[in-house]
Model the fold of this input.
Amino acid sequence: MKKHLMWFLGALLIFSATMISWRSVGTAKPTTSITSIKTAEVSAKALLEQYVSNVYRTAHLQESGLDLSVFQKAFTGFLNLKIANKLPQNSSILTVVDLSKPSHEKRMWIVDIATKALLLNTWVAHGQGSGDDIASHFSNNNESHQSSLGFYLTDDIYFGKHGRSLRLDGMDEGFNSGARSRDIVVHAAPYVSQQNINVQGRIGRSFGCPAVSPEVSELVINTIKGKTVLFINGNDSSYTSKYLNDENLPKTLFMPDSSATMANAGIANDSIGK
Done:
């Protein structure tokens, strides 16, 4: 009797092991397929928001005073300009100027997207026709002495009445496309200083140029020269730009395994959630 019982238990054990093995093989799913499905379910816009948040956090941009929503606008334009082949392949420098903030605050940020590092945070002037401490009026017209909002590409360096200066090309038709004819450039200005803030409660104003302090002008110009993106934000609900379109960005820009595409966009090839 014991012999038959042992035989039965042995056979049952073998059968159970076989069934478990068969079920495991039949129901197993490749992890790559699951990952692909999850990636496909996430929109490019959501991936962009995740990546922007990662760069924003890693570069400590919140601590420096840059608003996340403004940085996301600038980053979106940076990507669209890359995709439109307006930038060199290795360009990764993004400059953000937020004229919705008062001039006595440091409202220019230079960020290296590839290394996720804040390179400089400093004061920057707005046009005297745009307002007092906070800019509230903007124009693309000659002799307006107002700042112009939108995306710019930096170009060549020249020596003018303000010394060593950097030319800018406005990329938004009707908003800053007159930058060249208006001589809107990055240059040094002695009125962009702590001393001016102490006396007047604000820095001085330009004729529309994003002027910076003489103490950092060389660093600013040398860092952002040669076809990098500069975005000027401000309180103006009429401002629109095709470069703010985040609906048609390719997902491959944000996928960890898309090395070539991400490199072309100047984006470091690592995990979004890292």
